[in-house]
Amino acid sequence: MPFYKKLLISLVFIVLIIIAFQLGINTGRKNTEIVIDKSVCEDLLEDDKGQDIPECDFNGCPEYKAIDTDGDNLYESVVYKRIAMTKGAGEVRIIDEGKVVFRASGAQFSYEENKDIPGITVNYVKEFDDTGLNPKTWETKKWIYLDGEYVLANDYEGFCEEHLDLDSDDETITLLEGDPKYPDYSFELEASKFQTIINKAVDSETNFAGHYTVATWGCGTDCFGYAVVDLLSGKVVTFNPANENYNISGLDISGRYMILNPVMSGQDKKYYKLSEYRNYSDEIVSIFNLVCTEKSTKDMYGTPE
Hints:
Layout: H1 3-28, H2 39-42, E1 63-67, E2 76-82, E3 90-96, E4 99-113, E5 119-128, E6 135-146, E7 149-152, H3 159-163, H4 195-203, E8 212-218, E9 223-230, E10 236-244, E11 246-249, E12 257-262, E13 268-278, E14 284-295
Antiparallel strand pairs: 1-2, 2-3, 3-4, 4-5, 5-6, 6-7, 8-9, 9-10, 11-12, 12-13, 13-14
């Protein structure tokens, strides 16, 4: 066999080994650890502190993950980087549309995605012992995304109203024109159990966010269930058959917030928001998220003494 053919076969064999090795690495990654090619962001990044995307150095390489931290069903790039060899110091940044919108750092630093509300939770050592080596106290801070910014969560009464724009009309809301569409209950099996009540609400005027209606029903003492229906598409955006010890408020045809008020003091007062975005097929997608909670110091029967 001629030498050039042997060389060609050897090169093909080496390329196949490299491809197989790379596929093995990708398969072994967890689904949540989606690695983002940082070159996609480099030309767009506008960090107001003038800092570049973290690079590999003697402290290690940055880790990139794709996480929805603002509740819009679109991924942000979350970048974690060790910034010192001692005390496990690290830093996390959230990059959205080419901009660094959040930064936090600390000793023995770690972070995790919020499970209940859009945002991120960070953990770090607040104080070391006298040796300066062993952690003495830890700090956990929960950041939540409220109306365009990341805010340090606090559960005092009035916190949510301070940070949410509840009263102003939303000019992006589209009003219903023409006849409403009814849900196709063959795709909404759970909601179909309440279709008589839901259809009656659809027949009524829209009462929420321009072209939505919120149907409600009782489920016992201090208990109600609800469904939010898009009257343009007939889709049931969210369905909750029973909420014990809560009542509903805040519904407005020109607003996007719905509030669940606790019956008893000490419970969480819950703020939900209905948002919309267009997907890649230019279809409107509706999102109904819990965006804020705060502790109630009073109940529907008055403030406890």
